[in-house]
Amino acid sequence: MRIESFSVEGLHGFVDASLDFFPDLTIIVGRNGSGKTSVLDLMSHLIRLDFEAIVKANFSIATLVLHDDSLGKVKIQASNTADIKKVNLTIGNVDPVEIALDMPLSMLRFGAEIEARNLSRELNPATLKRVEKMFSERSESMSQIATLKKSIKFTFVRLDRTILAIDSEGVTSYDNGISSKTTRYESSSPVPKDPIEDVIKVMRSNQLTYRRAADRIQKTASSELIKLHFSPPAISRSKAPTEKQLKTKLQELKKRVTSSHLIANAPGIEDVITTFFSEFEVLLDQAFPKNDQIKKSGRRTLHEETVEVMISVKEQQISELLKIFEREQVETSIAYQPIKKYLDIAAKFLNDSGKTLKFSPENLELGFVISKSILDDDFDAMEVSTPQKVRSIRELSSGERQVLIVLTYLAFLAGKDSIFVVDEPELSLHVEWQRELVSALTQLRPTNCQIILATHSPEITGRAKQNCKILKPSYLPQSGN
Length: 481
Description:
44% of the residues lie in helices and 19% in strands. The protein is α+β, with helices and mostly antiparallel strands. It folds into 2 domains: 2-193 and 415-475, Rossmann fold (3-Layer(aba) Sandwich), CATH 3.40.50; 202-334, no CATH class. The protein has a 7-stranded antiparallel sheet. The protein has a 7-stranded mixed sheet with strand order 10-9-8-16-17-3-18, sandwiched between helices. A 3-stranded antiparallel sheet has the order 11-12-15. A hairpin with a 5-residue loop joins strand 8 and strand 9.
């Protein structure tokens, strides 16, 4: 799902505006007072079909056009004048449906039938009859709304830094994007919560997922090593390898073993590998003696033939061991890649202040350590001792927290085929960080995720001029006394 265009007439009673959007990144640029925040808020109301918020907004007509690979073109048009209050929804080639917005606000919430029926005893007969008629007439509307809700994945980082997110199940949450049981039909005036708690939860969840995956990978590799150790040897019929070839393979294997976590995490494996190396080095000495040990030409002894066979066996084992360790390390690296990419990009913002993100070994929560010399209040150099306590990211500055919140929601919560909106991303950010932000967002952008930023920061717009759209509102003539 992505937004193609938006237009509004009579915003705040006197502003007309329109915008087209790029499928990947759009940066909305405008002066203070041009209506950027109001446009984003109204777009959010429309895409979420928040009828209560739509009715409360001050505008005449607003049109949002989206595209979905499965549904095709989606058009949401809302009218909110004194005489007409309705939403027209068109999905693909299906006939458009109309949702009247002149009912009591509690009845306008998507899926409010149950709520209304629970309140039916409190309604007078005339109102109850009107509500029941609305339910029967809106059955098709409800079906269309449900179809659209299933296709929407939307995240909105608001100007006040509360976060609104809606997933493909239609669940809307405020400032809690990981495991919230927040109702789908919650009021559009949430009680603010701190999104940094979501960062802690979601990163701990991802670290746990990685640890479980790494454990499975290492368990499989350990089983393969044990199986290889006790399997009957395979004797190669090919030409015997040279001393140089064998030593090269042996060094490569040692390098793989040194960089693997398998030895430390799989009891008994270290002894097996150590024994293998010792035995192989003894065989190498016997198969390729030093110059003063070279025997005279003549028929080979039984011992020499045996050594040659053992060398062949060990060469085959080295090849198999290399495959096992290489597979273990590649699969572990792939499992960790999303977290590593996130940490590497976040490091660009935190390293200047001497901070490095690190997972706490006690509870796997994401925290940070002071990773280099810092300055105290008297500007005297103070060396930080190691190892250090992992501090909570709750202790980071407001700018650092904001960066982590935005990067985490984008990388791990927005999801593919989603829409990710940030109003004034430059808030609390140093100019150097503003310059890094666009690159960081585009690198972490999930597949087919559309990013929309509204800003007047030249540091942000200057990094993606080709993706900027200028909001130029038209002001309607006002009648006066």
